[in-house]
């Protein structure tokens, strides 16, 4: 019998690994791509998320054979991309911007098959946050969940209680839209 090709998750994100595990998929290897994630001139947030997902998958596929899966999540208000929050000040600035208004989260997902075939999907989710008081913001900073997250929040924690409306993919906001990921892996011929 032919040996099954490995699945490589091209991501350092533990959330993406956990989301895959949720649907019974365990990567054989984790191999994060280290890319410059800054937007190109005139690039929209949607284009950025898709380009980075494809670039991460291709970078890892170039050195590791198998099915390579990668994703990238971009949070934006209008065309303004909210970078990953590195500090409490970044988290507070993001929350003030998101308070009481709508924003979008784009997650690009890409799969490169063992024969080098690329397939990708882009998932858009529109969310609205309740108006956040100073007390809400102080509580969020104290919980520390916004650090290292695109847009300065994680929907899978306390910030889940700020969401008054979500149209799109909850798992996409977390970083790996499971319906689209499964479709891409099935389409590429991956069998767990
Ligand atoms: C908006 C949001 C983001 N995030 C996370 C998902 C991603 O890990 C991160 C977005 O940054 P990404 O650059 O997409 O991913 P990453 O740097 O963590 O991992 P890698 O590039 O190696 O794949 O923010 C949440 O966990 N919950 C949320 O609600």
Automatic annotation (TrEMBL):
Required co-factors: a divalent metal cation
Pfam family, one: Maf
EC number: 3.6.1.9
Keyword terms, alphabetized: Cytoplasm, Hydrolase, Nucleotide metabolism
GO BP terms: nucleotide metabolic process
Alphabetized GO MF terms: dTTP diphosphatase activity; UTP diphosphatase activity
Organism: Asticcacaulis taihuensis
Hydrolase among keywords: yes
Family: Belongs to the Maf family. YhdE subfamily.
Any single GO CC term annotated in Swiss-Prot or TrEMBL for this entry: cytoplasm
Superkingdom of origin: Bacteria
InterPro entries: ITPase-like_fam, Maf-like
Organism phylogeny: Bacteria, Pseudomonadati, Pseudomonadota, Alphaproteobacteria, Caulobacterales
Keyword Hydrolase set for record: yes
Places the protein is found: Cytoplasm
Catalytic site positions: 72
Protein name: dTTP/UTP pyrophosphatase
Function: Nucleoside triphosphate pyrophosphatase that hydrolyzes dTTP and UTP. May have a dual role in cell division arrest and in preventing the incorporation of modified nucleotides into cellular nucleic acids.
Reactions this protein catalyses: UTP + H2O = UMP + diphosphate + H(+); dTTP + H2O = dTMP + diphosphate + H(+)
Site (Important for substrate specificity): 15, 73, 156
């Amino acid at each position: 019998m032919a040996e099954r090709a490995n699945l490589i998750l091209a991501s350092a994100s533990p959330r993406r690994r956990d989301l895959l595990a949720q649907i019974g998929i365990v990567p054989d290897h984790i191999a994060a791509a280290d890319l410059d994630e800054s937007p190109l001139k005139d690039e929209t947030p949607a284009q950025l998320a898709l380009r980075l997902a494809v670039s991460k998958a291709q970078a890892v596929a170039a050195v590791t054979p198998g099915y390579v899966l990668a994703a990238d999540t971009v949070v934006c208000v209008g065309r303004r991309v909210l970078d990953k929050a590195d500090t409490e000040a970044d988290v507070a600035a993001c929350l003030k911007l998101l308070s009481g208004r709508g924003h979008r989260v784009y997650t690009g997902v890409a799969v490169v098959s063992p024969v080098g075939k690329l397939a990708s999907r882009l998932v858009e989710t529109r969310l609205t946050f309740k108006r956040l008081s100073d007390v809400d913001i102080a509580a969020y900073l104290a919980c520390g969940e916004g650090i290292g997250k695109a847009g300065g929040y994680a929907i899978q924690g306390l910030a889940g209680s700020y969401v008054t409306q979500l149209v799109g993919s909850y798992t996409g906001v977390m970083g790996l839209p499971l319906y689209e990921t499964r479709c891409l892996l099935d389409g590429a011929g991956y069998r767990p």
